[in-house]
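TA notes, week 10

Several of you asked for a full example with nothing omitted. So below is the full record: C-alpha cells for the whole chain, then the designed sequence directly under it. When grading your own attempts, check the secondary structure regions first.
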C-alpha cells in the first residue's frame, strides 16, 4: 500500500471519520499520479466507505418554463441548420 494512502487513512481516523468523499480520493489520486478508482479501491480494502455523490441541485424560478426543452440545462436542442451537408453529400457525389 502506498504511504500517501496510509497517511490519508490516518488523517481520517484522527478526525473520527469512516467515510471519504470522491473529491478527496480524486485529489489524492492526482497527487499520487494515479486514477481516483485506485485510491477508492485501496481505502475500501482497508475498511473505509465512500460517501455517495449527489448531483448538483438546480432550482427553477417562478418565471421559468416548466416544460423547458429548448433553453435550460440538459435541453435537447433539435434545430439542425440549413442542411447543406446532406445536400452536398448526395448531390456532390459522382457515380
Amino acid at each position: 500500500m502506498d504511504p500517501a494512502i496510509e497517511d490519508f487513512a490516518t488523517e481520517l481516523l484522527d478526525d473520527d471519520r469512516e467515510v471519504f468523499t470522491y473529491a478527496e480520493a480524486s485529489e489524492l489520486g492526482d497527487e499520487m499520479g494515479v486514477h481516483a478508482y485506485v485510491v477508492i479501491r485501496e481505502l475500501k480494502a482497508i475498511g473505509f466507505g465512500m460517501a455517495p455523490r449527489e448531483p448538483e441541485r438546480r432550482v427553477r424560478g417562478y418565471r421559468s418554463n416548466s416544460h423547458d426543452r429548448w433553453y435550460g440545462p440538459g435541453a435537447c436542442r433539435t434545430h439542425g441548420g440549413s442542411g447543406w451537408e446532406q445536400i452536398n453529400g448526395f448531390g456532390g457525389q459522382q457515380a
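The chain has a mean pLDDT of 82. Use that as a sanity check on your answer.
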